[in-house]
Amino acid sequence: MLANLLIASLLVSLATAAVDTQGTEYRVVFPRNFELSSTNCDLSISIVNPNTAEVKVSISYYKTLYDYSSQQNELLSVPAGGIATQGFPKFDAWEYMNGGFQEQFDTRIVVTTSLPVNLYANNYQKDGFGDTFLVLPYSMGGSSYAFTLPAPSALQNGVIQYAIAYIIPTRADVNVEITVGSWNEKRKIPFKVGSNVNYFAVPHVVNQKDPSFYITGDKDFMVVAAVSCLPLSDGKCDYAAFMPTPVVLPGQCRSPTPVADNHPTDLITSRKFSITPNLQSGDCNHNTVNFYNGDMSDEQNLSGEIYTAPNLFGDRFIVGSTSIPTGPIRIGGLPGTGGAFLTGLPSTTQFVTGTTYFLTRTEKATLYIITDAVASLTMRLDGKVVNFSPEILKIDGVQYHFTTAEVLSDNSPAVHKLDASPGKYVFYVTGTQRDGHAYGYYPAFNKLKSQ
User: Which domain of life is it from (predicted)?
Assistant: First the structure.
C-alpha cells in the first residue's frame, strides 16, 4: 500500500488539463454486464495521451478475488499522442449483484498519471455485448447527483437485470444519503483502497418506472452508473454505462437569478432523453424545460421522466432551461444497427476549443459534431477539412452548426485528432461492436457552471 501511495505521489503533476475531462487522478469500477457470470467479460482501460511529451502511468488493482494482499501495481508509458491499454481480472465486473444498497469486494481501479490524460473504461463480452465510457477525473467530482436511468429489461436467460449506481469517494470517506423512489438510506462510504466498494442497484420489476437516483454527500465523490440490460425496440437489450456529472446548485430547486442553460443536440442516434430535478421535491417539479428548434417548441415539467422527441423536431433540437442548469442524459442507439449507450448532454458553456485527441473502439466510427460559426470554418479531423451543412440552430443570437464525420482506422482501438482554433465545439463518438452492440461517448467537455 505504501509503495503504491509513493508511486502515485511521484506521478501526479501540477500540469493543467486543456479541458476539464482530462486529469491525473482516477478511480473507476466496471458495473456488472448482461450475464450473471463474469467469465466471458473482457475488461480494460484505455489511456489516451493528448500531450506533446510521454506520460508515465501508475495503475493499482487486486489480482485475486477476496484477497487484499494481492494488490498489483503496473507502471506504463504512453507516447505523445498515443494510447496504452491495460487489462484486468474478469471478477472486476462484479457478478454477485443484489438490489438496494450493497457492499462488495474492492474492485476499484486506481490510476495516476504524470500529465493530464483521457481515460476510457471498456467492458465487453465475447459476443460484443458491452460498452466503452469516458472515465471522469477526481476534479470533476461533486457532492450531489440527480439522474434518471432507463428501467432495466426483464429477465434475460433467467438472469435478473439492474440499473446500477456505484459511489466512489475521491479524497476521503464520505457520508452519503441516497433516495431512489420510496427507498432512502444513509451510509458512510470508505475512501481507503482495500475497503469494500458500495453500490445501489434497482432490479427489474413488472410495470417499473424509470428509476431516478438522488445522491448527496458531505464531501465530493464520483458516480459510475449503468443499466446491465437496457431494453431496445426490437425486444433485445444492450449494456450501457457512463459517469454522470454532479448537480451544479446542490440543495436548490432553482437558481437565484435566471440562467441560459442550453444543450443543443442531434436527434439521429436518439430521441429519448432524461432530465432530473436537483431534488426529489414537488417544488422542483414546478420548474420547466423547453425542447425547441427554429420551427417548434415543447415545454415540459422537469420531472425526471424520460422524454421522447416528436418526429416534428426533425434531426436536431435544443434542451433549454432558464430556472436552473440541468444535466440531460441521452439514451442513445445507432440508426439501422441498434444497440444502446448512455451519455450526458453538454451545454454550450461546456464546449471546448483547440485540439481533442479521442479514442475509437472499432475500425469504423462516426462523430456527431456541433460547433459555433467560427469553429465550423476552422475544423480539421486528422488534418482534413470537416464540411458542415448550411442548416443551423440559433441560441441567444449565436449560430450553431451540425455535421457527422466518418472515422476509419487500420487498427482498433485507435487515437484520432479533432481540431478547431479559434472557435468552440463539442462532439461524441459512436460505433458498433459485434452483433449490433453499440458504444457512444463525449471525449471532451468542461464542467457545467452555475452561470
Answer: Eukaryota
